[in-house]
Amino acid sequence: MTTEDILKACPPRRVAALSRGALSYRTAGQGPAVVFLHGLAGNSLSWVRQFPALSARYRIVAWDAPGFGVSDAVEPDVEVFADVLCELLDHLDCSSAAVVGHSMGGVVAARLASGHPGRVARLVLSCSHPGYGDPADSPIQPRVEQRVRELASVGAAEYGRIRARGLFPAGFADEEAMDVAALIAAEARPEAIRSSTRMLQLADNRSVLPRLKMPVLVITGERDPVVKPSLRDELHALTPQARHIEMPGAGHAPYLENPASYNAILDEFLSPG
Q1: Where are the alpha helices (DSSP H) in the chain?
Q2: Hey, which of 119, 128, 138, 216 would disulfide with 134, CB 3.0 to 4.6 Å?
């Protein structure tokens, strides 16, 4: 897929003026609302293989998290990210939605679901984790500035390729999926790398995950190279009330690697009745 193909497959960015600044997003379709939250190497374009498949039955909304796309960055606090998401739902006149949170997006989605349970009808945690839960006075992880320096030194295109390669399992051969992931990751901005990585470092959903009352689906990739097995297993242990599905052979981007299976799993879980 070329950049032009990706843009054709996704609706255009829109921008909402919220209390903490601008927030960009994409939306298409009619029906029950489903909000997609991307991971650290993504943005609203991450869902290029979900928009065409699901927007015939659902109102699909995909945000650019604070600092991504043309969204303004906010302080690195998961509660703030969740509040921004809640404001976006208000802007869209959406009282309740299913929320699909991938990786970083799952951390934000779980916090929204715990703090505003009436806003989340169903929750999908895709290749996610509970947050790292470091103390507030912990130093910033060295890899944060390393990535910012890498982006500056190698340029956006090469940075995107580096980040994309890290999403897929060894031996993955779908070059088109790789190219799409690289094009998306190449849009990274230093403020997004800094604020989102720090947010995940401090976020801790361990106390809230077991108490979620809405239907919850946890999707994992059998060969996910990003989420450590210990964090994956901890997420499973913290969500005994959830349905758990492991996608065989999948890495950290099953929405691109095997979109037919991923979309079918989502559709079955999200369908009313």
Answers
A1: 3-9, 51-54, 78-91, 104-115, 142-154, 156-165, 175-185, 190-202, 229-238, 254-257, 259-270
A2: 138
